[in-house]
């Protein structure tokens, strides 16, 4: 009986030690980040002609660009909240702003593809393609 209790105690200690070391080793961030640099951006709102391809730039957690193509390229700034697969861009990083207008970006081989939401409804796609310099 004592042998069984000792084995049980050792097994519990090993499992506990493994769990503790796993927590300590795996405690890093599970978030990705949209890489800084120059991009082209194009918005496709469902039922509307696609917007023209425009230059855009990511600086830190800010997406700078202009989706309309009629104003200077750097008129719009959206804050990016990093997520596991890319980021969520909105006018401000709060739940109300994200509900009003947001883009959920996911990493792709060419850059990022985003689903465009307005008031919680998917209304289009946004493509962010990495380029080496400003167009």
From TrEMBL:
Endpoints of the signal sequence? 1-26
Alphabetically ordered keywords of this record: Signal
Top-level taxonomic group:
Bacteria
Q: What is this protein called?
A: Uncharacterized protein
The organism of origin for this protein: Gordonia amarae NBRC 15530
């Amino acid at each position: 009986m004592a042998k069984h209790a000792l084995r049980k105690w050792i097994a519990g200690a090993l499992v506990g030690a493994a769990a503790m070391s796993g927590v300590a080793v795996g405690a890093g961030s599970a978030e990705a980040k949209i890489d800084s640099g120059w991009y082209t951006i194009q918005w496709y709102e469902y039922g509307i002609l696609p917007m023209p391809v425009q230059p855009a730039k990511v600086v830190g957690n800010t997406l700078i660009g202009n989706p309309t193509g009629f104003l200077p390229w750097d008129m719009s700034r959206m804050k990016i909240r990093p997520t596991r697969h890319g980021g969520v861009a909105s006018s401000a990083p709060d739940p109300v702003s994200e509900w009003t207008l947001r883009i959920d970006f996911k990493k792709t081989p060419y850059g990022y593809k985003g689903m465009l939401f307005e008031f919680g409804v998917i209304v289009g796609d946004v493509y962010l393609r990495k380029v080496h310099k400003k167009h």
